[in-house]
């Protein structure tokens, strides 16, 4: 059978491997970053029970990319050094470039079952989008365009894991940033120095901040005249002096075992608030400074928003494949797979999953190439599926709940129950399915519960509902990108036809 997605081999000037998982872990181990959790300062995020599962999941992604067998899929030659670098950093110049990037990102998403929304390929795509259009930043000064390209190249060639914090904290949304009770509540510049700027304030939602190398800090929230101090974009190392990471409660820390919590124990990337306590940022790491217009344009006049969200939809597509695969396994295991009612429910589930998949492929098939030779995924296809995500996801979760019934609730308290012969014997009799032993059945059920019923599952439902922001924001993006003129032309054609005389 012909491979529908062949990988075109690229020559490399050297055989140097990229960053490995162990190198990643070593680089963030006890590096001085200030992570505050459960009332204290975490000394080493790589060994702390709240974070080590996620750290090792990210390390596995690097190992997949570093495997020589995956080189053609996972990497491309750096335009600067010729050595292999992560393909997620590639600026696509052809539609095929975009296709191969999708395949790379599918492979990483499969390794986390689509459950880590801020893996290293997410913000890497935003950085690629910024660097694809340095003229947008240079409009405020040549140095800003130069800075954004330089940081992109450094991150790309060093295989960095960058995350971002681009939303101000929810304090008083009725007032703009500069009219808050304290004008330094939202992250912004408070002082300008010869060598750089001083930042103070807070920004969220820095998902993956605990795990990453560096932070892209800016604002996607609408800013108003007077908010200039907050209209910035900078890159900051995670261990920068004065940068504090306040993470939410970890679902992994209280996961008693991988058997009982197979997903939350390994893929809880955690979400954080970033507090900047007079953090110094050198000028070369500043891309936007006190420029409200440019702070807005970085997302829309570069392909950054489309690249980053295209990756996010690829990740979501894989997550839905995992979800429906798990539902199918449950149905087969309990012997209800052949029931017409179950097939109808699964047919609806499959239709929704296929809709998301088709829209991901449409973003590639309908991509355009601009005058600078840069490929943009289809905005219409992208924002269409994003606009529906908050409505489709709860429906799919609900279908899974209906199919499982009460089986996911009545499960053994923990894997230790199987260590008691008397208890295990009862479970083998009363908690088994035809052809499936009790332990395997419970393992599948616990995985399903972890996906949709635990705190980890609840966080994922909230995450997908508000992934792109409030639904009205995404629908406004859809409104701005849809070709209404083409639709109106059809109406005019019908009006013109109906206005002709019947005898003509």
Question: What does this protein look like?
Answer:
The chain is α+β, with helices and mostly antiparallel strands and 504 residues long. The protein has 17 helices and 14 strands. The protein has helices spanning 21-28, 52-66, 71-74, 95-111, 120-132, 134-138, 142-157, 264-267, 292-300, 304-334, 340-365, 379-404, 421-430, 438-452, 455-465, 471-481, 484-499; strands at 34-37, 40-42, 75-77, 84-86, 162-165, 188-192, 196-203, 214-217, 232-237, 243-247, 272-282, 286-289, 368-369, 375-376. The strands form 4 sheets. The chain has a 6-stranded mixed beta sheet, with no helix packed on it. The chain has a 4-stranded mixed beta sheet with strand order 5-8-9-12. Strands 3-4 form a two-stranded antiparallel sheet. A hairpin with a 5-residue loop joins strand 13 (368-369) and strand 14. Helix 1 (21-28) packs across helix 2 (52-66), helix 10 (304-334) packs parallel to helix 12 (379-404) and helix 11 (340-365) runs antiparallel to helix 12. It is globular and about 75 Å long. The chain starts with 20 loop residues before the first helix and ends in a 5-residue tail after the last helix.
The count of β-strands is 14
Could you say which structural class the secondary elements and strand pairing correspond to? alpha+beta
What would you call the shape? globular
Number of helices: 17
Oligomer status? single chain
- Helical fraction: 40-55%
Q: Could you describe the largest sheet, including whether it forms a barrel? A: 6 strands, mixed
Record the SSE blueprint.
Blueprint: H1 21-28, E1 34-37, E2 40-42, H2 52-66, H3 71-74, E3 75-77, E4 84-86, H4 95-111, H5 120-132, H6 134-138, H7 142-157, E5 162-165, E6 188-192, E7 196-203, E8 214-217, E9 232-237, E10 243-247, H8 264-267, E11 272-282, E12 286-289, H9 292-300, H10 304-334, H11 340-365, E13 368-369, E14 375-376, H12 379-404, H13 421-430, H14 438-452, H15 455-465, H16 471-481, H17 484-499
Helix pairs in contact: 1-2, 4-10, 5-7, 5-10, 10-11, 10-12, 10-14, 11-12, 12-16, 14-15
């Amino acid at each position: 059978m012909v491979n529908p997605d062949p990988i075109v081999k690229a020559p490399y000037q050297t055989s140097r491997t990229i960053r490995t998982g162990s190198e990643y872990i070593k680089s963030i181990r006890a590096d001085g970053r200030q992570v505050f959790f459960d009332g204290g300062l975490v000394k080493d995020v790589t060994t702390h029970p709240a974070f080590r599962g996620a750290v090792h999941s990210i390390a596995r992604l690097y190992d997949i990319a570093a495997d020589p067998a995956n080189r053609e899929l996972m990497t491309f030659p750096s335009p600067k050094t010729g050595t292999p670098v992560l393909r997620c950093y590639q600026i696509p110049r052809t539609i095929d470039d975009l296709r191969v990037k999708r395949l790379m990102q599918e492979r990483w998403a499969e390794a986390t079952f689509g459950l880590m929304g801020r893996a290293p390929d997410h913000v890497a795509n935003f950085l690629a989008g910024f660097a694809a259009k340095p003229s947008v930043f240079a409009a405020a000064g040549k140095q800003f365009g130069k800075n954004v390209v330089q940081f992109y190249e450094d991150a790309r060639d060093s295989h960095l894991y960058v995350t971002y914090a681009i939303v101000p904290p929810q304090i008083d949304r009725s007032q703009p940033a500069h009219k808050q009770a304290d004008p330094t509540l939202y992250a912004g510049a408070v002082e300008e120095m010869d060598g750089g700027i001083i930042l103070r304030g807070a920004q969220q939602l820095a998902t993956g901040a605990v795990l990453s190398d560096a932070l892209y800090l800016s604002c996607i929230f609408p800013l108003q005249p007077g908010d200039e101090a907050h209209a910035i974009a900078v890159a900051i190392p995670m261990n920068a002096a004065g940068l504090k990471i306040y993470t939410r409660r970890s679902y992994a820390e209280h996961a008693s075992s991988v058997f009982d919590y197979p997903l939350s124990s390994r893929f809880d990337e955690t979400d954080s608030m970033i507090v900047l306590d007079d953090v110094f940022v050198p000028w070369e790491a500043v891309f936007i400074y006190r420029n409200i217009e440019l702070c807005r344009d970085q997302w829309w006049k570069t392909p950054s928003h489309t690249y980053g969200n295209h990756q996010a939809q690829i990740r979501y597509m894989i997550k839905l494949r995992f979800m429906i695969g798990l539902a199918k396994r449950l149905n087969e295991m309990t012997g209800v797979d052949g029931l017409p009612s179950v097939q109808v429910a699964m047919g609806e589930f499959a239709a929704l999953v296929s809709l998301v998949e088709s829209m991901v492929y449409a973003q590639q098939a309908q991509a355009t190439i601009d005058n600078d030779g840069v490929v943009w995924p289809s905005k219409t296809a992208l924002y269409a599926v994003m606009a529906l995500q908050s409505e489709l996801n709860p429906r799919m979760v609900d279908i899974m709940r209906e199919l499982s019934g009460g089986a996911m609730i009545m499960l053994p308290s923990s894997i230790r129950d199987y260590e008691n012969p008397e208890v295990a014997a009862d479970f083998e009799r009363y908690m088994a399915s035809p052809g499936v032993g009790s332990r395997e059945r419970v393992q599948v059920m616990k995985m399903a519960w972890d996906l949709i019923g635990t705190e980890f599952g609840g966080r994922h439902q909230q995450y997908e509902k508000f992934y792109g922001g409030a639904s009205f924001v995404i629908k406004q993006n859809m409104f701005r990108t849809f070709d209404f003129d083409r639709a109106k032309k059809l109406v005019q054609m019908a009006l013109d036809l109906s206005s002709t005389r019947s005898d003509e």
